[in-house]
């Protein structure tokens, strides 16, 4: 997933991204009339060049990752020709920004959570909340998040990662009712991070591991889709609570775009809100056996509590 293929100096990530976006745009979308059948989907390179007002040879070199210093005007024209949205445009600029020196891979500096951020987790006692890093690393989480999702604090440090959990832990496929949608969103987020940090060795290790072990990840990573996930809805099937719907908000911390607070809330008065209330009331008296993915029969909520939850559903 690094910018350069072995020894060639070509920007492979840029090349793959441009090809994937070109294949997505139809001639009709670009205002091009076609007569003969086309062997490949999307636009031809010369058609992108024409739409962008570029020399065909120059665009071919750009798409092959062989232009090191494309101007802002050129990138804007390419973004327009390929119908990129704002997130894709920013990703294009990250991948193609001028490189005056070759950046050498080096161990990433561990992300630190500020004391004030830890305090936020303590305040949010009745709703799942966690602090995530750019590679989807779980940097900190409260007990409600441990109970709702997984006990990340019990895992080895390098395994505390949402992407690893979602793709490699069978419990995640049981937990997320819309697993495919959730998993694909994670892939798009990792692509955005890769554009900003192309030489992160820990990210490369993560991508290699997930690509080797999960076919879905391998296919979605090759699609090169990018999307920001700032808010949304998670539909969960919790081993203790049954079906729970959470509204998820991701709030980026000032000064660090690669660290954010993720909070899951339920609609007031809803069955899911009642489920969170029940979980919060029990969590202080239970050990880690209550945490999602590790529930035993002795940890099941009482019949009365479950009945209240189900009746409201």
Salient structural properties:
single chain; 313 residues; alpha+beta; 14 helices; 5 strands; elongated
Q: Could you explain the architecture of this structure?
A:
The protein is of the alpha+beta class. Helices cover 45% and strands 12% of the residues. It contains 14 helices and five strands. The protein has a five-stranded antiparallel beta sheet. Strand 1 (129-133) and strand 2 form a beta hairpin. Helix 13 (271-283) packs antiparallel against helix 14 (303-312). The protein is elongated and about 65 Å long. The protein starts with 11 loop residues before the first helix and ends with a helix.
Structural Rg: 23 Å
Helix content: 40-55%
Could you give the count of β-strands?
5
Global shape: elongated
């Amino acid at each position: 997933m690094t910018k350069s293929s072995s020894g060639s100096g070509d920007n492979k990530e840029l090349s793959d991204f441009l090809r994937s976006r070109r294949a997505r745009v139809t001639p009709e979308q670009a205002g091009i009339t076609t007569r003969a059948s086309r062997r490949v989907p999307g636009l031809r390179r010369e058609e992108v060049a024409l739409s962008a007002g570029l020399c065909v040879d120059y665009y071919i070199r750009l798409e092959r990752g062989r232009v090191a210093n494309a101007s802002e005007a050129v990138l804007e024209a390419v973004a327009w020709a390929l119908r990129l949205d704002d997130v894709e445009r920013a990703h294009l600029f990250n991948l193609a920004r001028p490189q005056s020196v070759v950046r050498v891979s080096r161990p990433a500096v561990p992300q630190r959570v500020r004391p004030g951020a830890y305090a936020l987790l303590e305040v949010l006692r009745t709703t799942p909340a966690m602090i995530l890093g750019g590679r989807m690393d779980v940097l900190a989480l409260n007990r409600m998040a441990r109970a709702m999702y997984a006990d990340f604090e019990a895992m080895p440090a390098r395994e505390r990662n949402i992407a690893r959990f979602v793709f490699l832990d069978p419990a995640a496929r049981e937990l997320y009712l819309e697993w495919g949608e959730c998993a694909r969103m994670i892939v798009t987020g990792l692509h955005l991070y890769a554009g900003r940090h192309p030489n992160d060795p820990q990210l490369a290790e993560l991508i290699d591991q997930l690509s080797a072990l999960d076919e879905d990840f391998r296919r979605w990573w090759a699609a090169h889709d990018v999307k920001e996930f700032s808010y949304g809805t998670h539909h969960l099937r919790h081993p203790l609570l049954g079906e729970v719907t959470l509204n998820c908000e991701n709030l980026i911390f000032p000064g660090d775009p690669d660290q954010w607070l993720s909070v899951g809330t339920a609609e007031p008065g809803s069955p899911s809100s009642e489920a969170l209330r029940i979980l919060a009331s029990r969590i202080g008296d239970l050990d880690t056996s209550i945490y999602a993915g590790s529930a035993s029969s002795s940890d099941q909520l009482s019949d009365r509590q479950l009945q209240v939850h189900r009746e409201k559903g």
